[in-house]
What does this fold into?
Amino acid sequence: MPTMKAEDVYVGELEQLILLLVLRLGDEAYANPIREELARTAGRRMARGALYTALERLEQKGCLRSTMGNPLPERGGRARRYFTVTTAGLRALRQSRRVLLGLWDGVESKLETS
Amino acid sequence: MSLQSDPPAVLERLLERALAASPYRDDIVGDLREGYAAVLDNRSLTAARWWYCVQVLLLAVPYFCRSAVRSRVRFDSPAAHGGARMDRLLLDVRFAARSLRKRPTLTAAVVLTLAFGIGANAAVFGVIDALLMHPYDMHDVDRIVMPMTTSPRFSGHRETVSAADFLDWRRDLRGGAIDHLAAINWWDANLVGRDAPERVLGFFVSPPFFDALEARAAIGRTFLPDEEVPANAKRVVLSDGLWRRRFGADPSLVGRTVLVDAEQWLVVGVMPPGFDFPMRSELWAPLAFDGKSARNRSGHYLTVIGRLANGRSLADAQAQMSAIAQRLGKDYPETNAQLGALVSTLSRGMADVGVPPVLALWQAAGLFVLLIACANIANLLLARGAEREREIAIRLALGSSRGRVVSESLVESVMLVALSIAPSLAIASASLRVMHALMPARIVRFIAGWDRLGLSASTITATLACAAAAAVVFGVLPALHLARAGVSEALKSDGRAGAGPGRQRVRRALVVAEIALALPLLVAAVLSISTVTKFLTSWQGYDPNNVLTIRVILPESRYADADSRARFASAALDRLAAMPGVRGVAVGNVLPAIDSNAARAIEIDGQPVTDGSKAPRVDYRAISAQYFAVLHMPVLTGRAFTIGDQKTSEPVAIVSESMARKFWPSGAVGQRLRVADGAWMRVVGVCGDVVHDWFDSRNVPTLYRPLAQAPSDGLVFAIRTAADPLGAVADARTAVARVDPTQPIFDVMSMREVLSQKTISLQYIASVMAAFAGLALMLAVLGLYAVMSYLIAQRVREIGVRIALGATGRDVKSLTLSQAARLTATGLAVGSLLAVALGRAMEAGLLGLVSSDVRLTALLALALGATALAASYFPARRAAAVDPIVALRSE
It folds into this structure.
């Protein structure tokens, strides 16, 4: 097994999707829109609980950082938790992109003809 | 924020509890709130609640399990007993799940039985919640109060308020405990808009009415204080529905006039959608008192509402109102000496007095069914426990604790209950939906809260509570038995598990209880069904087939005097009679079974009345000449009215048979009487009695007068047709419109429909009771069957010995059947006592609408007994067929 640097983290496919969506959503990245976008763009209907678990795990891995917004009346006075991608998260994304693109190289023609 | 835009609070708390360990708790709950609001916007309230319920379950269960697992991991050290306990619990859960899966039929039977029992209770609770606890969706509804007059005449019950009393109350309450005191009075408005005239249900209200309810107009305004003066009172506020339906949602309508009751009224405002208080009102006008009515203290006709002043409680309001009522009693002793005042909340004040006893009856019936279901399940589980007796004894002998065994059995019961919750809610929701759909719209508006029938948060809570109670009831009994199991006896015994006398006694007691609970339900159901069918099918003194009825209320502004009303009636009669396929037409102020009634105090010639309040009262009808002929009512002696009985001819009357018997036992024809201090009338005939309402006794004394001599502004036409009366509806509408195009007609129904709607509440009572009784019967019979099969299976060896020693099949059958018969008879004996008690409660609670009957109870007890014996016949036959060799070899 190749040794990883201490700050290197590995992110799975779903985690990649979530990180990308957080990047795309920008200031509006909290759980509800992330879940909706996931369903819309990737066709992945995710159980709410599973999404929170994934978000929690990404935060523990240091790929996401969360900040609380202002309390909102439509949420019964509760605040939204907004997510931003950390540098570690960006690095992880870049890493997996590099790996994937490397692997894609040379197999595209096979996929298209089959 | 209104109640509906929040998700059910119970579920939200449940979720918060389950998520307690999650760092994201608050934002998950918040996210769900946003989601709830989105579903609510796009779909219905029910959809949103269901959605929320599902989401909470999906979130709470995994989180709860995960936190349970975590706590196990964290405390999994020898020192931490808590963790070990959790560990064991998880093990028990897994074990119970496996054992339930292994017996799918048993599990399904238990879950279904429970679902019906719990679902029925939840449905009844849903009705109670909607009708009694939360009938109105208004802001701060608990601070809206209803002051009422109380009077010993109604044995301390509430009564409507007189105008003078209301004005005094308002003056004395200024700055007191109740703000925005407003009076409400019924208004049958005849609205002429762009299309055909229409009767609209409206209310005259004092201007503060809208402030008391904290309601604001969506367009324009509500009423100003100075619009209470008769000169300024020709103002109306429209409901959103009426504005859209009749005026095409035209915003410029505000500031223009509309034609109501043949007068011009200025439209000052339109209310927002959903505001229809009271009773789906569509039109409001200021309630104005002229000098005469403002001094009237004896006519009680107003409903009064108000809002508790800031910082004041219901008790403050009651104290202040009592003081005011006492003072009015001193100031006006002749009218107010006996009167008191009662302040209640709006929900309570508006509830029909007849509703709570009916709902209490339903709830009692529902509990009976649930108890029967629990008894059945306890029996099934006891049998299961008996099968495992040896296994458990071995485990105990090997050092397992009794606590473990008991907790295992409890976990299994809890899991069965948990499985039944979803189907219970589905059953409750479906029954509420059916109940809501079957109620005719013209009746719904008189039942505050009926539109709110559905699964509410409190209904769901009640369901959960019910389920928990059920789990305790049927789960504890088998668990206790396991706990008491004697190890050595069980191991020494020959495998005839569960045959111990103690266990059999419990099982028998359960069957006795089931039968004892089923009988009263059957009696109650048959009682209410027979009352309905009696009213609908037996002869009530007239022929309701092929009769079309039409109601008209003539507005005073257009038909001020008796002559104009009489002219309208006779012109309409001519037009209607000329329609094709019509056999005859009649009109009266009241027809049999129509919603309204009229009564008058009378004086019999030669029997002077000294005290006005003790004058005899009789039902009062003003009718056209053909009335008896059209309704096929017999004239027993004398004659019917003719067209010769006119205003100018001699005043005449016809009395019903019961009235004739009561006042003139030696013959009524030729005698004289008068209504109040009117002219003396001569009785010219005696007609048959009719049953006006299903709770009337058959013979209410009734006085009939010719319409020409006693014109009425409320008219009901009866049209006897050759074929289906509903085929004549269009012609009838045209005919009345020809007489007066601005006069609306309403309640155009066949007399059969009138009868059916008249009994709708009793039909509801009857069908709900029938459903409960059917369930109870089914469960009780199944329970008896199961227990008998079980007992016989236990006795196979004994029966084998008996047969080997020469007992015939018949002996064996009678042996087992007599055992069943003893159980049934005990159950029926206890049940009869309960049935008599329930019958009495129904008589008292349903205001004497039904009368309990000992013969009926006896008959049903026989029927139930026969069914029970039939159910135990099959196990008995099986017992008789036992092959002694097989039975003895099984040792």
Q: What stands out?
A: The interface with chain A takes residues 1, 6, 12, 22-24, 26-35, 37, 55, 58-59, 62-63 of chain B (CB under 8 Å).
